Structures are given as C-alpha cells and as structure tokens.
Amino acid sequence: MTGREREPQEIVAGLLADQRLLAACAERDMGTLFRLLNHRGVSTRRIAAAVDITQGRLYDYMNGKSRVEKLAIFEQIADAFHIPGHLLGLAKRPWEPAAPPPPPALGEPLPDGDDMAAMDAFRTADRQAGGGRLYNAVVRHLRDNIGPRLVDADGTPHVFAIAAVLTEMAGWMAHDSGQDGVAGRHFTRALPLARASGDTPLAASIAASTSHLALQTGDPAAAVHWARTGLDLAEAGPVVPTLIARLYTMSARALAAAGQPTPALRALGRAEETLGGAAEAERPWLSPFDAAALALESALVLRDLQHHDQARARAEHAIRLRESSRARSLALSRITLVCLHLSCDELDAAVTVGHDVLAADPNLGSIRVLRQLDDLRALLAPHRSHPPVRALLTRFDETRRARMLLLADIVPPPSKGTTP
C-alpha cells in the first residue's frame, strides 16, 4: 500500500450516506460494518485496536460466528469511528456537535428548560424502573407545579403542551401499573390539553396512546378508530415521520387483532417505509418510537396473523436493537419471543430466552410485565415433562416470589374470589 493509511473516521464520514452502512447500523450488524471498513483499507489490526477487542473476536464478528451484543462495545464503535449515536440506537455522543434549535413554526409551543428536564427525568426513570413507583410522583408534579400555571392569566400554549405531555405520561404509567381505567381517563384529559396548546403532532401522539390502550383492553375497533384519528391529525402537519410510523403501526396491530390481514400488512408496510425515511430531528416532547419499537410491534402483528416465522425474526431483531437500559421494553420483547418459540414447539429455544427474561432487574416496577410473566408461565406449564422446562418453571416460581416481595408496595390486591 502506498501513501498514508486513511483514518477510519475519515472513511466512515464518506460512508454516512451509504445504504449498506446505514442498514448495518440499523440492524446493529457490526460484522458488516467491520467488513466495509476492511474493504476500504482499514486493517483488522486497527479495527480491533480501535474497538478494544482481540483480532480473533473481530474475525468472529466479521465471519458471522457471533454478534456484538454489549452496549459498551456499541458505544466504543460509535466513538472510535465517529458514527452518530442515533444510527446505532444510542444517545447523542459527547463529540457530536450540538445542533442549533430549529425556528418554531407558527403556533408551535416552545419547550421550557425546567419542564423539559422534568419530562426527561420521568421518562428515563420510567424506561429503567417501570411506571409503578413513578405514577404518584408524576401526578403530584402535575397537581403542584403544572396545574396552577394552567389557570394563570399569563398561561402560554407551552404550559398546555407540557400539561398534555405529563398527563399522557401519567396514563402510560397507570397502564404499566395495571390501572387501565385510570390510564384511559388520563388520555381523555390529555387530548384537549394538546389541542389547546395548538400542537397537532402532540394531539396525534395522544391518539396513538389511546389506540394502544383500546387494543390492550380488547377493543380493536376503537383502536382502529383512534389510529385513524391520529393519522388524520399527524398528516395535517407539521409532519413528523416517526409519529406517522407509530400510528401506522398501531393501525396494523388493531387491524390484525380484528382479523383483517391484508389492510394490516399494508399498514405495517407503510410504517416501515415511513420510519425508514425519517431523517429530521424529532420533537423531544413526543413519545419516542424507534426501529426497536417497530420491530416488536411488527412481531405482534405477524403473530396475530399466524406468520410465526416472520414474527419470531422480528422479535429477535427487536432484542438485538434494544439497549439494556430500556429494561421494560427488553423484557417485553423477550417475553414475546418465548411465546413465539412455544407456538412453534421450539422448547429448548423458549427455555434459553426464558432464562434471559428472568434475569431482568427484579426491581422493575411494571405490573404489566409481571402479568405477562404469569401468562408466560401458564403457557410453559403444559410442557413440564421436558426437564429444561421443568427447571425453568422452578426458577419462575422462585423469581416470582422474590419479585412479589420487592414489589409488594405497588402490586394491587387480588380481586375478591381470586387467588393471589
């Protein structure tokens, strides 16, 4: 080789519009990324040194024998090669330049620093610890800090927007706590607040949340209606592609649950197409929706349509994409994958992922996850004659007892006539 060896960061900078690199990042396929760099003259020695792994491990990644799974390695790759964090599903990296805020559109509420900090703190804690222990804190914040500002003569559209955001968040936390009736009332209150703020995308986001809740409570017709309402709002503008993708996804889920396969698959295709083309900076006060969320929701759509092989592949993809800090989302993705393995009589695969499910943080304050674990145990029980399943069921019971002790302060009491 003549001349200087080009720096890896320089090569990556020239590949940031390359569909192969973008696809590899979206799928967290680091073996393909490493091969792209190697084919452009970066030695395996330099790649391994930059990522702080052995060359033997690097060859395993490049040959497809193993995949990068650890968050720390993804962060090392992003920082070593200057790959923007969002391409790998990571937070913005420290070296990324701060983008100037876009000028507000006419009638668009401006986010306030303190309110945004509170929203981010609640959202981050909810992702890691579940909504069970956070619900009361959000309600108190709404009552003590936001409510008085709503009736202030100097109230601005922003105050109505942040009230809508936190009321929607309280609804999600109530849902995560197993209080779906309370969740519905929060969503019902959030929508007029969003309309009063003049923020149409925020109103569309709340419609998406209402669609999700309707589906979870067994009303697919209402779920279709709210997804359609949200799409009408979202497409009226300002256009936010990730929000539109989320609404198409909710439409697909509702249509699949209603037994309408062709429209469901069409809506799912629109969601994938829309999210794949999303490039603009998203509005931070909207509920986030990313490739991992789409993969999990797609798995549920395909499961309901009895496309089990495709559903299983989407659930596996969701797990690969989802970072470990999103404990609840990762647990739900793994529970879905175990159920799909069981539907295909893949007992050993179900057991392997089942042990991963039980390794989740026992302090995760999500009644929704706890109930799905109970449902999963019921699906496993008929297979107890298989020794690995029997061992997993024993661990299930031990783990559940420990979880009930840790979550005793948030688990609702059993209804009369039921056993605890």
Structure notes:
InterPro entries: Lambda_DNA-bd_dom_sf (IPR010982), TPR-like_helical_dom_sf (IPR011990). One of its GO terms (molecular function) is DNA binding. It comes from Actinacidiphila bryophytorum. The protein is mainly alpha-helical and 420 residues long. It has a domain at 8-88: 434 Repressor (Amino-terminal Domain) (Orthogonal Bundle). The chain is built from 20 helices and no strands. The protein has helices at residues 8-13, 19-26, 30-39, 44-51, 55-62, 71-81, 113-129, 135-150, 157-176, 180-197, 200-216, 220-235, 241-257, 261-276, 291-304, 308-321, 327-343, 347-358, 367-380, 387-406. The chain is globular. The model is unreliable at 99-111 and 415-420 (pLDDT under 50).
The major β-sheet equals: none
Q: Helix and strand string, N-terminal first?
A: HHHHHHHHHHHHHHHHHHHH
**Arithmetic mean of pLDDT:** 83
What is the number of strand segments?
0
Query: For the record, what CATH class of the domain at 8-88 applies?
Result: Mainly Alpha
Protein name: XRE family transcriptional regulator
GO molecular function: DNA binding
InterPro entries: Lambda_DNA-bd_dom_sf, TPR-like_helical_dom_sf
Organism: Actinacidiphila bryophytorum
